[in-house]
Amino acid sequence: MQQFEAVNTAGRILLGPGPSGVHPRVLRAFSMPTIGHLDPEFLGIMNATKQMLQHVFGTANELTIPISGTGSAGMETALVNFIEPGDRVLICISGLFGQRMADVASRCGAQVDTIEVPWGQSVQPDQVEEALAEAEAKGGRVKLVGIVHAETSTGVLQPVAEVAKIAHAHGALIVVDAVTSLGGAPVDVDANDLDIVYSGTQKCLSCPPGLAPLTVGRRGLDVLRARSTKVQSWYLDLTMLMAYWGAERFYHHTAPVNMIYALHESLRLIVEEGLEARYARHRLHAEALKAGLEGMGLALFAQEGFRAPMLTTVTVPEGIDEVAARKRLLAQYGIEIGGGLGPLKGKIFRIGLMGYSCTKTNVMLILTGLAEALAAQGFNADGRAALEAAAVVYEASA
Amino acid sequence: MQQFEAVNTAGRILLGPGPSGVHPRVLRAFSMPTIGHLDPEFLGIMNATKQMLQHVFGTANELTIPISGTGSAGMETALVNFIEPGDRVLICISGLFGQRMADVASRCGAQVDTIEVPWGQSVQPDQVEEALAEAEAKGGRVKLVGIVHAETSTGVLQPVAEVAKIAHAHGALIVVDAVTSLGGAPVDVDANDLDIVYSGTQKCLSCPPGLAPLTVGRRGLDVLRARSTKVQSWYLDLTMLMAYWGAERFYHHTAPVNMIYALHESLRLIVEEGLEARYARHRLHAEALKAGLEGMGLALFAQEGFRAPMLTTVTVPEGIDEVAARKRLLAQYGIEIGGGLGPLKGKIFRIGLMGYSCTKTNVMLILTGLAEALAAQGFNADGRAALEAAAVVYEASA
Questions:
Q1: What is the pLDDT of residue A2?
Q2: I need a surface site. Which of A34, A364, B24, B68 has the fewest CB within 10 A?
Q3: Span B276-397: which CATH code?
Q4: For residues A224-233, average pLDDT
Q5: Which residue of B has its CA nearest to A235?
Q6: CB contact under 8 A, B22 and A33
Q7: Quick check: helix, strand or coil at residue A363?
């Protein structure tokens, strides 16, 4: 058959909603020789990975492991293990990933109640309190509340700690999607008393996509142990995955060995930087970016007070073709940013500053490139004001 | 927190049931810069990967994609998409992976009939004919027959083409596990009229674990389209995965970009070698290994006439501690081989010669190392006879 060329990409500057840029050390770790998934040397790498994940999650949970799939597999794991057919759950929806949670929960056989707020806004704790009280008044009991921490489709950061308190007061588990937030903003699983939290490797952990870190606390384990039916997914069944990642090392499936090398290295980089310094870095560059975008004459999309530091959304000005603007950025600058999803298609840009991509260089570059791309379509983007506004933020922090 | 050391493994000689050794070109491909999963450049890599997978599977099936999980995720995809609650299925069990198929099918809500043969033997086509006729006589209809091509727990290669004919004669789909066989023995999806076939990357494709190539033919698509319920797994839902890998490029989940680089390169290596040459290589070295093991005084475990070329099983002699023997091989030779699973624990060795690991060098090395490890436990292993018997095979083929 036809011979295809080798992959020889020069790469991109990844400033979209993920994947984010990857440190060369992580790429290098990928290329270490593959060893067996039950090799004593690999078991040591698994242990270190687990301990570093516990650190980044802010938890002592023994069940803290990378699921062998991308973030969406993490979502499915976080729901399928704790829902049995007929269970009632409450999902907070403020964007695409909340919708996905509701879809996945319904496929697990749950009766799904939802709270929906307009995309770009945050779910309020009061709404959760009301929904749970209402379900109880009707004689129902909600087993689990699901919420997305940083909603990747809108750039909104939601108040998961408050929602967790309310869920617990009503005897429900809290399941948190930290796909976009983990490693870029505090998730603090134990301090916030979160029961089940999952993430993805390709956002603020700055590792290529392919794994979904997950942690489960005591309440989650109790529910898992009390199940009366088998978990409907064999691949994502935590009762078996625990036995592989635990002391027994019981074979379940073949771990994606080189992906774990890469995650291990990306976690080492996080430990070296320090979590507080890393969060401060994400806050600083997000602030500069947001100031720059406003300085350019653009309007930020996400609700003020709830803006995620690692993912900034901005409204596409009237008359601008956002696909053409993104194509120009890719062609002329090698920069990838995201467009809107679902109802926001064509209406917003999504600019990520995650992990290795979160630098002053990239802030100044995207402001320059975006202003140029918008100007090319006739929008009066003030690129100079944008850079000056960002510079003010950097000077104030110096 | 504590700083962990970087992964700095010197690697192993991988002669177990998988993962197999990985060509340096594949490891190098891993470390190309990550780009976006919707980047035009990545879409080109996806297309090439798909075409090369079609070639290796021997199929023109449009739906031929790598699932974003390991081989077991491929198994789950192959069942969960085609089974609806209450469907009757027939699973052929001759080892652990047949058992797993039955477990996964039952979690999909299927009524599971099974054919079971002693581990080490092959299911016979007549048994399938009888089981299907029996189900029909009772008024049942079997929707799907599942069978493992090369049973990784026993080293037996089963007659999937004959079983497919019988399944079709009874109006059932055939689902084939080609995790261990693909790339090492002909699977020939179209010539054998197989409906749904999945594999894993870490066996004869000689790519690290992490992806599960899958192909679905016309009958499978018809069943998928005729479903009356949603697929219970969101992550593995082929109706949505097709839209991402198809012309629409509709976002589903973030593809494991660097894993696909690696698969792409491992497929390029297969295309370069040529399928017929590759199968001949697997047959030759398997024959030499088997001759050597018998020459050493050991008994092959798998039923004669049904022995898989890429995975040889051999009975552990009376009084030998197989774990100790394998530990010695790992410590003194850096060689990994496998032990028995389930009822075969302690009773067999499993020696893989897959993909990049399938060489004369490795055959002669494992014969030498195994003879030494057995002799160290007092077994009278004739290492010289082993090497001579293997050499005879090589000379005959020269």
A1: 87
A2: B24
A3: 3.90.1150.10
A4: 97
A5: B73
A6: yes
A7: helix
The whole-model pTM stands at: 0.98
User: Is there a contact between A259 and B71 if contact means CB atoms under 8 Å apart?
Assistant: no
Closest chain B C-alpha to A265 CA, distance in angstroms? 7
Locate CATH 3.40.640.10 in chain B.
24-271
Angle at A367 between CA A363 and CA A370, to 5 degrees: 135
- Which CA distances in Å does A22 have to A15, A200, A280, B151, B258? 12, 14, 19, 38, 11
| Angle, helix B40-57 to helix B257-273, in steps of 10 degrees | 40
Q: Which fold is adopted by the domain B24-271?
A: Aspartate Aminotransferase; domain 2 (3.40.640)
Binning pLDDT at 50, 70 and 90, where does residue A250 land?
confident
Say if B86 is an interface residue toward chain A (CB within 8 Å).
no
Question: Is any Cβ of chain A less than 8 angstroms from the Cβ of B231?
Answer: yes
Q: What is the pLDDT of residues A279-303, one digit of tens each?
A: 999 999 999 999 999 999 999 999 9
Residue A61 to residue A191: CA distance in whole angstroms: 12
* Distance (Å) from the alpha carbon of A55 to chain B's nearest alpha carbon: 8
Q: Decide if B70 and A6 are in contact by the 8 Å CB cutoff.
A: no
- Chain A interface includes B270 (CB < 8 A): no
Cα separation, B358 vs B186, whole angstroms: 16
Which of A16-20, A152-156, A201-205, B245-249 is predicted with the least confidence, judged by mean pLDDT? Answer: B245-249
At A139, the pLDDT band (50, 70, 90 cuts) reads: confident
Nearest residue of B to residue A234, measured between CA atoms? B104
**Per-residue confidence (pLDDT) for residue A316, from 0 to 100:** 98
How many Cα neighbours within 13 Å face the side chain of A215? 29
ipTM of the complex: 0.97
Of A22, A210, A235, nearest to B210 by CB-CB distance is: A210
pLDDT tens, residue by residue, A115-124? 999 999 999 9
Which part of chain B has CATH 3.90.1150.10? 276-397
CB contact set of A218 (below 8 Å; sequence gap of 6+): none
**B360 interfaces chain A, CB cutoff of 8 Å:** no
Residues of A in contact with B64 (CB under 8 A): none
**Residue pairs spanning A and B at CB distance below 8 A:** 253
Q: Nearest Cβ partner of B68 from A70, A100, A254? A: A70
Domain with CATH 3.90.1150.10 in chain A: 275-397
State chain B's mean pLDDT as an integer: 97
In this model, does residue B110 exceed pLDDT 90?
yes
Asked if residue A173 lies in contact with residue A167, where contact means CB atoms within 8 angstroms, the answer is yes
